[in-house]
Amino acid sequence: MPCKDRNGHPGSGTAELCGPQDLDVLVTSAPVHAAARSSPQEAGGEVAAAGEVQA
Questions:
Q1: pLDDT tens, 7-40?
Q2: Backbone torsion region of residue 39, taken as left when φ is above 0, otherwise alpha when ψ lies between -120 and 50, otherwise beta
Q3: Quick check: 28 and 9 in contact, CB under 8 A?
Q4: Within a 10 A sphere around the Cβ of 40, how many other Cβ atoms?
Q5: What letter would DSSP give residue 42?
Q6: What is the Cα–Cα distance from 29 to 32, expressed in whole angstroms?
Q7: How far apart are CA 8 and CA 5, in angstroms?
Q8: How many CA atoms, within 13 angstroms, populate the side-chain half-sphere of residue 37?
Q9: What b-and-e string marks burial along 5-34, b requiring 16 or more CB atoms within 10 Å of the CB?
């Protein structure tokens, strides 16, 4: 999964940390785009937006 915070980093680019199959839960900022949600979910993980209530 590429990793980059909402404000970005100096310069450009992302860093490959792991694949979606390595994640149980991905927590990210809202809104979560469908493409960002689908890859971890297809690999059996969950995606949660920070601040969202999980039921």
A1: 655 555 566 778 888 889 888 888 888 877 888 8
A2: alpha
A3: no
A4: 21
A5: H
A6: 7
A7: 5
A8: 9
A9: eeeeeeeeeeeeeeebeebeebebeeebee
